[in-house]
Amino acid sequence: MQVTEHIHAIKIPFQIPIGPQLLLDRFVYAFLIYGSRICLIDTGVNSAETIIFDYLRKTGRRPEEIDMIILTHSHPDHIGAARFIKEATGCIIAAHPGEKNWIEDVDLQCRERPVPGFHSLVGGSVDINHLVEEGDILELGDGLSLEVFHTPGHSKGSISVWFPTDKALFCGDAVPLPGDLPIYDDYEASVSSIMKLKSLAGIHTLLSAWDDPREGDNVYQLMGDSLSFLQRIHELVAQKVTNDTAPEIMELCRQVVLSLGLPASAATPMLARSLQANLKELGRYDI
Length: 287
Ligand SMILES: [Zn+2]
Known about the structure:
Elements: E1 7-19, E2 22-34, E3 38-41, H1 48-58, E4 66-70, H2 76-79, H3 82-89, E5 92-95, H4 100-104, H5 106-112, H6 118-121, E6 130-131, E7 137-141, E8 144-150, E9 159-163, E10 168-172, H7 187-198, E11 205-208, E12 214-215, H8 217-240, H9 249-260, H10 269-281
Parallel strand pairs: 3-4, 4-5, 5-6, 10-11
Antiparallel strand pairs: 1-2, 2-3, 7-8, 8-9, 9-10, 11-12
Helix pairs in contact: 7-8, 8-9, 9-10
The structure holds zinc ion.
The site of zinc ion has 4 residues, from loops.
């Protein structure tokens, strides 16, 4: 769907096998910026190119017009179709140095962060052509440009991208959705990144990978709610480990999930990884 003058959002459904015959329905957004050339922000999972290319054709554009993919980070649902799209279009790929290893070697990523169904979600490793850092400007042609913000926490090289022409901010997975699975490697960095984005004045549209586009007052409202959600999780973890007998990590997950009112299926190793980050902040390296 068209979101602003230049931006189109594409919702890509996928499933994660979280147990025997148990599939978790998820979705991820990829975004197209239409100028004289086309920029794709994140690619969705393996095979998502079919959805993206169909959308391009339906709106009178061609896949070959994609000349750059920006990967907000390396996780499977963001890079899954990158290899195929790069091969099909000859575009360049831009990402932060902190994500380079996991994008260029997905087997390494799978060993270090084994998401269930990893290899069905990712179409393969892909080389980055352009490493981007905080403050970098990416020219899209015709006077259109993007500014890069380093927003770590969800992962160490996560970036957000500001598109001033349409007053739109692409934040990848940097802003956890209240009531959804909170996923981060570094709690403190995650909070700082959301605060950094929240201090950016004049955002009209927020384009998060795991949320429908938000507009107007809802943009800053969501970022505030997200901060409160993370703080609540941190407080819950702190409460549950104050005793001498701290719960085992998956038991801690189950307790936090229950307190947050999330479905029991949310107590996954992914969430455990987030809570480990909270424990680290609490000085509980030994748990
Ligand atoms: Zn992610």
